[in-house]
Structure formats: C-alpha cells, structure tokens
Write a structure and sequence with these properties.
Blueprint lengths: L1 H18 L14 H18 L8 E4 H10 L10 E6 L2 E9 L9 H6 L3 E13 L2 E11 L2 E2 L2 H7 L12 H8 L1 E7 L2 E6 L7
Antiparallel strand pairs: 1-8, 2-3, 3-4, 4-5, 5-6, 7-8
Helix pairs in contact: 2-3
Length: 200
C-alpha cells in the first residue's frame, strides 16, 4: 500500500514536471483598430443587455478575432487578459494559454503544493455544442510545453464535457439554462439564448 502511494506521488510529480513550467510565456496581444475593438465589445454588451431582466434576447455571433478582442479588452475578462489567445477554424476553437496555477482556485494538500509557482503553457483545441439541453465543450487536442499530450491520457479526457463541473456553480448554471443553442461552426461561435426573436 505504502509503495503504491509513493509510486503514485512520484508519477504525479513527473507529470507536473513534464507538463508545467516555472515561467510565464508571453502571449501576443491581438492587433485591431479601436473601431474593431469597440464593435466586438458592443456585440457582447448587446447580448448581456438582452439577457438582463426585461431585455430582448439576441443571438451572439462572434468570429475568432472578435472573441479574442473581447477576452483582451472587455472588463469582465480582465483576470484572463494577457493569458490567452483564441482562434476559430471551421468547428474547432483553438487557444494558446499561459496560466498561473497560483491564480486559480485549487484544493489544499499535495496537489496544490506541487503546482505552487507553476504555469500551464500550452495549446488547446476544443469543440462545442449542446448535450442534454446544456452547453458542452470537448477537448480535441492538447500540447503542453511544446509536447503533445499522450493519446492514452486524452482518450480518458475527450469524452468528458469540460463544462460539467462549471455547471455546479449557481451563477453559471443559470447562464447555461438561459441558452437554447451553442455551437462552433464555419469559423464562428454562436450562442442562441432562449426566447430569442431572431435566430441564425
């Protein structure tokens, strides 16, 4: 039993060493005219206003560029500005990230201690849709520190809806329940709220 615990701990430590880093990797800021930035932010604000009490829901349709500009410039996303770059090609949303584990909510114990002072630097590819009436995101590919994560690991993760745990948050659960359709297609992220008057 003791040997099993030690082996598991050593394996986890190896995974931490292989797939984390001790330094932030600079993420290039998107370049766009002030008008383009304002247009992207206005799209999100119009969607948010429509979802507020008494508002008229509208469909949110964003290109990868617009989504990226929102993540870098909208006040609601200040915590992740400078940590993420996204692009959408076809039905795949890809993201370049450099996240500091110290700034993420982590459970106490060895797991958190092992990740203290560490960064997750990598590229993630995702597909999105709806599952049982709720938004869903699925991992397509993952590269960390320039290394492709083994298929043996990805095979366990790919079938999992990455938004499943997030749905346990009352705030996010209410947001998810307000969505009739979410999809990534033709280079666009499309979010259709319930009771929307015009659908794409």
């Amino acid at each position: 039993m003791v040997f099993g615990v030690v082996a598991a701990k050593n394996y986890f430590q190896k995974m931490v060493n292989d797939y984390t880093a001790t330094e932030y990797v600079p993420i290039a800021a998107p370049e766009a005219s002030p008008g383009k930035v304002a247009s992207a932010l206005e799209k999100l604000d119009s969607y948010s206003t429509g979802m507020a009490g008494g508002g008229s829901p509208v469909t949110l349709t964003l290109t990868g560029e617009e989504l990226n500009l929102i993540l870098w410039n909208h006040p609601d996303f200040t915590p992740v500005a400078g940590m993420i770059n996204v692009a959408i090609e076809g039905d795949v949303l890809s993201s370049e990230v450099s996240l500091n584990f110290d700034e993420l909510p982590m459970p106490k114990g060895f797991f958190a201690s092992a990740l203290q002072g560490k960064f997750f630097n990598g590229e993630i590819s995702l597909k999105g849709g709806m599952e049982a009436g709720y938004p869903a995101l699925y991992l397509e590919a993952l590269t960390v520190n320039g290394k492709e994560v083994p298929d043996a690991f990805l095979a366990r993760v790919k079938p999992q809806n990455l938004l499943q745990e997030a749905a346990k948050s009352p705030e996010l659960s209410a947001f998810f329940e307000s969505i009739e359709d979410l999809r990534i297609e033709d280079g666009l992220l499309i979010i259709v709220p319930k009771d929307v008057t015009t659908k794409p």
